Amino acid sequence: MTNEAPGQGNSSSAGIIRRAGAGRAGGRPWGRRRSAVVRGAFVAGPLCVLVYGVIRLADPDHGPGPAWTVGHVFLAAGLVLFGAVFLGMRRLAVPAGRAARLGAGVATGLGVAGAAAAVAQAGIDLAVGFRSADRAGMDMLFEQVQSRPGVEPVVYSVGPMLFYVGLLWLVTQLAVQRRTGVWRPVAVLLGTAVMAVSLDLMPLGALLFAAALAPLGRDVAARECAARADLAYGGGAPYGGGLRAVA
Fold it and tell me: How far is it, in rounded angstroms, from Cα 133 to Cα 113?
């Protein structure tokens, strides 16, 4: 699917599978259903954010109504799916040294915490939209909510930023470990930057995220499939040496 050099991420699932055998820190392999859900999240998560961005552009008033509600439902769903994306990327990153495993764990924790903060923000937006008759009423309610101690930094500023920190950290770590192409962290960074410039550019940012992340879901599924086969037929621990034979 890409022009990456052999042995980097998307060049071949077998490369991911072989590198998965480098350690035994991955735990038991995921079942087929869980692997399929996580693989789908790598595509569906960014696409849900894309849908939100498009709906937002179609609603210039950003006031209460169907567009506000449907858009924020898609946004919340996409952020929940990104929780699965973080867990999937951690599975790709953990078969490495202790420092790398620790880094992947910290990045995953930051990303999930940031996604949770952003989901909370989307939930507040939905509640405010339901309770308001117009944009002026929404602004009044937003001011009341954000004036409560701790809400502004946790839900609106610092908290959501952790999502981008964790996402960029994990993709960069995978690139450093040569488990994916070096252009993917660049795409994630560009996607984050354009969203920071203006929320009107959120569709473009979501497309950049999708380009960087979608193929990694396939690699997660291939890794877990090989690990299940290793456990069933290889006679060893999952993510152990039997993965090389399966690959």
Answer: 32
Token pair listed for 99: 């420092």
For 234, half-sphere exposure in the C-beta direction (CA atoms, 13 angstrom radius) is 20
The per-residue pLDDT for range 172-198, each reduced to its tens digit, is: 999 998 888 999 999 999 999 999 999
The predicted model scores a pTM of 0.80
Strands (E), 75-225: none
CA gap 20, 244 in Å, rounded: 9
CA distance 240 to 29: 11
How far lies 62's CA from each of 141, 176, 221, in Å?
Answer: 14, 41, 39
The CA distance from 85 to 39, in Å, is 8
- Distances from the Cα of 169 to the Cαs of 2, 149, 159, 188, 235, in angstroms? 22, 30, 16, 10, 35
Q: What confidence category does residue 92 fall into, taking pLDDT thresholds of 50, 70 and 90?
A: confident
